[in-house]
Design a protein that fits this description.
Layout (H helix, E strand, L loop, with lengths): L21 H19 L8 H24 L4 E10 L7 E10 L3 E8 L9 E7 L6 H11 L3 H9 L8 H30 L4 H25 L8 E3 L2 E3 L2 E2 L1 H26 L1 H7 L10 E4 L9 E4 L13 H11 L9
Antiparallel strand pairs: 1-2, 1-7, 2-3, 3-4, 5-6, 8-9
């Protein structure tokens, strides 16, 4: 029988819910704030460089946000099934509900949503069990047993415990740790790519974009290999069986990795075939046939100013000694006897 506001008596009250994962919401908020900031300063850029600059900023922020989002996402492997199953331990009550399983790099998320009007209570559970560094999955499962969570939630959570014969814990924990580390390296390469593409070393920025995509694809390859080491474990929930498949985070990482590889190749090829157009796209062009020269005294290290060698003043031939001065004077005025002082 329900109590305390339509929740099971083991719970002290209804659990607050958020329409999306809070970590993803924070990441999206940070990158949207950065995008709005760039859009505010956009009118200060003149000509067609404004469009190129906006395109670069949007693409870069989009790639960085996706890399961070998939690292913390719980949708690398997902599955959902509608079934009739038992509800609680020591109870003969059965319910009609949808059971969802989401496996991420740092743990699993299990959802249970019952058809409204059953058992005079709202059946809506969303439980997370993590195996990140510093977290103990077995302790979290023990706490779930003490809470008295529904049978479908405990059944799926038990399949990922270290002592389960399915071996899912070591399989997905290993895949999650190493895939997460590889994606963090990809994120660092993305940061380096942004730094290098804002300097006169565009080809190295292209190399870093290539490295970003390669590390993402390597993470996908390792995740696929690690999660296929053992045969699939059957997940029977009442009258149905839950099957998992690749989730949105997996395919988003694949698309982002391929995009980074293509962009990196485009920058490298353009550097060798059309270097002037590449510099013009990144607003580093100094004109046809000119070489960029750094003038440290005009702006310092924080805001160096670049100008072409055509604009540079002609070098002055300053004699270094009296002998050289006398020689130059005789060459220019051979008839003057006192040309040298």
């Amino acid at each position: 029988m329900a109590a305390f506001g339509h929740t099971f008596p083991f719970y002290s009250g209804p659990k607050p819910t958020f329409p999306m994962d809070t970590t993803s919401a924070i990441i999206i908020t940070i990158f949207l704030t950065a995008l709005v900031t760039f859009i505010i300063i956009l009118p200060g850029i003149r000509g067609k460089m404004r469009l190129f600059w906006l395109l670069r900023m949007v693409t870069s922020l989009f790639i960085g946000a996706l890399i961070l989002a998939v690292i913390f996402s719980s949708k690398w492997s997902v599955g959902q099934v509608s079934t009739n199953t038992s509800y609680k331990a020591f109870s003969s009550e059965w319910i009609s509900a949808e059971v969802g399983l989401q496996i991420g790099l740092g743990g699993v998320n299990i959802t249970l949503t019952g058809t409204p009007g059953q058992l005079n209570e709202t059946i809506n559970y969303n439980e997370e069990f993590t195996w990140r560094l510093g977290e103990n999955y077995a302790e979290e499962y023990a706490k779930a047993l003490e809470k008295g969570l529904p049978d479908p939630v405990l059944y799926l959570a038990e399949k990922f415990t270290p002592n389960s014969p399915c071996g899912l814990h070591s399989q997905y924990r290993l895949a999650g740790h190493y895939t997460s580390a590889i994606l963090w390296v990809a994120f660092l390469c993305w940061l380096l790519a942004n730094v290098m593409l804002s300097m006169p070393v565009l080809v190295y920025g292209g190399h870093m974009l290539l490295a970003t995509g390669i590390f993402q694809l390597s993470g996908l390859l390792f995740f696929s290999m690690a999660t296929s080491l053992t045969p699939p474990c059957p997940l029977h929930l009442g009258t149905a069986t839950l099957h998992t498949h690749r989730g949105p985070a997996f395919w988003i990482t694949l698309a982002t990795g391929l995009l980074c590889v293509l962009l990196g190749l485009a920058v490298v090829v353009a550097h060798w075939m059309q270097p002037h157009r590449l510099k013009a796209f990144f607003n580093q062009s100094g004109g046809d046939g000119s070489v960029l020269e750094w003038i440290p005294e005009e702006g310092g290290l924080l805001s160096p100013r670049y100008r072409s060698t055509a604009e540079s003043p002609e070098p002055l031939d300053i004699p270094l000694s009296g002998a050289s001065s006398e020689t130059c004077c005789k060459e220019e005025y051979p008839g003057e006897p006192d040309c040298a002082l």
